[in-house]
Amino acid sequence: MSTIPRNQWYVAAYGSEISNELFARRICDEPILFWRTAEGTVVAHADRCVHRRFPLSQAPSRLVDDKVICGYHGFTYGSDGRCVAVPGQTKVPRTARLAPYPVVEVDSLVWVWIGDPALADESRIPRASYLDAPGWTTVRGLEPLAARFSLLVDNLLDLSHETYLHGGYIGTPEVASTPITTEVDDDAGAVYVSRHMDDAECPPFYRESTGLQGRIARWQDIEYTPPCLYKLHSRIAPVGSVPNPDGSDPDAFHVEVVYAITPETEHSTHDFWMVARDFALDDDGVSAFLAENNRTVVLQDVEALDVLERVIATEPAGYQELSINIDTGGLAARRMLARMVGETPRNAPAAPVR
Amino acid sequence: MSIPEAPPVLRGERVQRVHWVLGTDQLRAVCHCGAERLFDDPIELWEWLLGHPDDHRPAEPPEPTPPPPRTPREPASVPA
């Protein structure tokens, strides 16, 4: 049984990745072909010619005047996916059409709907407007993860691992030792995990980027909307500083760490990561530092989760995990994901992919 | 003993909350129906929360909850 929820929106690409050229990516085990039309709209279709399945992203297939021409026999499709020409005959079969995917470009992200297109509802796309808003600067990347997506969800829902896996970058002793509050709203499909450290060591990641010296107030508020979008609202401020009653927060630095967790296959994941900030907006040095260091942190996770995937994929069935307090948010996310794929959510077991 | 509690963020009518009780190893589960219980094990905790309304006794009258802080940043923006 698949562990990938269907009838869900997933981030397929950054908007900047897709131009007026053919672009292919496997999303949730489905090969999808993207391109940006001359008018600027991103379109998405099955990356298989209806004739003999030749991948339309594969050379010598090509895009000419917003029409994709299959490199095998020349079947030609418009941007709506309809076949407009076949070789050797004037009549084009009525059923010759590439399966279309609902696609929405918002907040610098290209979202694709995996499932029944009739059920696609744009209003359910979770937002991260700061990724494409004045007053914010964002650095980003994409790493291939040779592990099932649920392992990245586990990883990101429990940030106590920062202390051990990411020591010297974003981890300090307080992360693992500060209690958390977890909120779950099943109706809205959201898990929220708060860890507010009011007097903490400042890790190099934030010391170098903000210039804050000494101890800090460090708030981590995770907002996960399964299955794909994960947002870490990170607030870094001098000890004792809190937001004003009117909501302003002039003494604090705000960093929004966003992940789009998109399954490629049952055992591999597109690990999109973004770091948006509301300070030093035009400082290229800060951008380069945050990009390099966050990528380092992401790759530390990737290395660990790749190993974990191999461990889980080769172990006998029935391994019994142990969960403790730090796992409260991760367990909430697991049961929400389990429900999305039709499993009984009770006891929130680890996803048993084989 | 009064238990420090982080202000709520999610606004739904059926939000379940779990507070790691400061200074202890215990978790306090709060169901949307108002029932509360302390746990040592998050697995048992979720079993109980998911079992609503089984064994969810009415809670003691809650202490007044302070108003949540406003945030200048993007609020919890869950889909409708």
From TrEMBL, chain A:
Source organism, top-level taxon: Bacteria
In what residue span(s) does the Rieske domain sit?
9-112
Swiss-Prot/TrEMBL keywords:
2Fe-2S, Dioxygenase, Iron, Iron-sulfur, Metal-binding, Oxidoreductase
Q: Does the keyword Iron-sulfur apply?
A: yes
Q: Does this entry carry the keyword Metal-binding?
A: yes
A single Gene Ontology molecular function, please?
A: dioxygenase activity
| Database matches in PROSITE patterns | RIESKE (PS51296)
UniProt protein name: Aromatic ring-hydroxylating dioxygenase subunit alpha
Give the organism, scientific name: Actinomycetospora straminea
UniProtKB/TrEMBL annotation, chain B:
The annotated regions of Pro residues compositional bias extend over 61-70
Q: Where is this region: Disordered?
A: 52-80
User: What protein am I looking at?
Assistant: Lsr2 protein
What organism, scientifically named, is this protein from?
Actinomycetospora straminea
